């Protein structure tokens, strides 16, 4: 996969990928209360990708995939990236899957129970943790969003993040000076490897 971006840290990757995904055509539908939202929502698509760790101690982004899941409910879609990435630069069994990345076209937005169920499935396939130069990191899921009201993304306004084993969902947003701030966005309680209770913060 020549040309696939490589990053020195997972954080650098997340900040670079957020505007990249949100700039894709129809990746944002705007605020649900804005005029003509229904039209933009019907045209919108989620984009998704894997962020994975490679043998030379860097983080790589897979190719972007558009929504392939036709089922959608109010403000919720689906995007199914392949469970495994093909990267000819490295042996297949040397890749370590760290984050499943996707956008949420509608705002306001949040991670959903569907997102957390998808993470549980990924954990069963890839395991719950990745050994990296930064230490042992849990596999996670991220949803990027734009606060634009009309569906025209002006960039990355933030993202929701949940990592395996954590009791909370967090929301990352930049302040007026461009510093990223972390706030609690919900709680997660796991009753088993597949059953959980998710209570979003209102």
Structure overview:
The protein has helices at 10-22, 37-43, 113-126; strands at residues 6-7, 30-31, 47-54, 58-61, 65-66, 96-103, 106-107, 129-132, 135-138, 140-145, 158-163, 168-174, 180-190, 196-200. It is α+β, with helices and mostly antiparallel strands. The protein has one domain (6-200). Strands 1, 3, 4, 5, 6, 10, 11, 12, 13 and 14 form a 10-stranded mixed sheet that branches. It has a two-stranded parallel ribbon with strand order 2-7. Strands 8-9 form a two-stranded antiparallel sheet. Strand 13 and strand 14 (196-200) form a beta hairpin. The longest helix has 14 residues, at 113-126.
Layout of SSEs?
Elements: E1 6-7, H1 10-22, E2 30-31, H2 37-43, E3 47-54, E4 58-61, E5 65-66, E6 96-103, E7 106-107, H3 113-126, E8 129-132, E9 135-138, E10 140-145, E11 158-163, E12 168-174, E13 180-190, E14 196-200
| Count of spatially separate domains | 1
Which structural class is indicated by helix and strand composition? alpha+beta
Unreliable stretches (pLDDT < 50, length at least 5) are: none
The radius of gyration is 16 Å
Number of strands: 14
What is the helical fraction, as a range of percent?
10-25%
- Mean residue pLDDT: 87
Tell me the fraction of residues in β-strands, as a range: 35-45%
Bulk shape: globular
Largest sheet: 10 strands, mixed
Question: How many helix segments?
Answer: 3
Distance between the termini: 41 Å
**Succession of helices and strands:** EHEHEEEEEHEEEEEEE
């Amino acid at each position: 996969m020549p040309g696939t971006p490589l990053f020195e840290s997972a954080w650098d990757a997340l900040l670079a990928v957020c505007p990249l995904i949100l700039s894709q055509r129809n990746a944002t539908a705007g605020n649900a209360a804005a005029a003509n939202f229904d039209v933009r929502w019907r045209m919108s698509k989620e984009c998704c990708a894997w962020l994975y760790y490679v043998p030379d101690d860097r983080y790589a982004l897979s190719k972007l995939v558009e929504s392939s899941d036709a089922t959608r409910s109010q403000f919720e879609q689906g995007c199914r990236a392949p469970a495994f990435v093909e990267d000819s630069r490295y042996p297949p069994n040397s890749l370590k899957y760290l984050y499943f990345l996707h956008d949420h076209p509608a705002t306001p937005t949040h991670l959903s129970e569907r997102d957390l169920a998808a993470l549980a499935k990924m954990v069963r396939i890839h395991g719950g943790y990745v050994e990296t130069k930064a230490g042992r990191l849990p596999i996670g899921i991220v949803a990027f969003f734009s606060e634009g009201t009309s569906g025209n993304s002006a960039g990355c306004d933030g993202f929701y993040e949940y990592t395996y084993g954590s009791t909370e969902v967090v929301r990352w947003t930049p302040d007026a000076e461009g510093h990223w701030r972390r706030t609690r966005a919900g709680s997660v309680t796991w009753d088993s490897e597949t059953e959980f209770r998710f209570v979003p913060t209102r």
